[in-house]
User: Fold this.
Amino acid sequence: MSQTVDRALSILPLLAEGPADLGQVADRLGVHKSTALRLLRTLHEHGFVYRQSDQRYRLGARLFALAQQAVENLDVREIAHPHLVALNEKCGHTVHLAVHEENEVLYIDKVESRYPVRMYSRIGKPVAITVAAVAKLLLADLPEPERRALAEKLDYPRYTSRSTHDATAFLAELATVREQGWATDLGGHEESINCVAAPVRGADGRLVAAMSVSAPNVVVSAEELLGLLPLVRRTADAISREYSGTAVPPSVTDPAEEARTP
Assistant:
């Protein structure tokens, strides 16, 4: 029975490449046409494949409906939370998870640091969108026309001397973030607070959330916090894999960078 299930499931990625006839399916599976036909008929009865007028088979609408339902039922916060806690236990610093909704970037989870100094951020609170590391990641993932339109209508408060000061500078920074795949806020919102962030991606490669580690200068220097970047990126990759159900390629591939990770 397990071999039958395996063969039936092997048909789906074949048809994802495009419609195929009975002979092509049988050849790919390495079985007789009668066996392939029985498998296709069963999948057809459940709506997973559809037989076209030219006698070729393609993926059925039921499969797409199930996929959409699965995506809608995913809760990135629920999936991410154990990973955020584990990261906090390793580094001791404040860990955030944020999402982009209706032109705002909001914190949806937070694990407090182990030391007495506390950040004012809280779950449900919008971030400082022009300086926050998580915001830079989420906005950098937008298509270029959307990034430009959004950047041009934002205000650019001067929180500190390191704050992004206008749309041109912001777009340039987003381009850098998009290319490198991670972001920082080194005193851009508060002089004494630094932050590094990494992306959480869905099965289609687009960002569904961004996570970060933040710490004050009195606890750890900006350089020391940047040293945690490989660990932060590995945590984000682990969340991405669990959320998407796919083998997301690891972000950290540089052996020298790995060696610096605590």
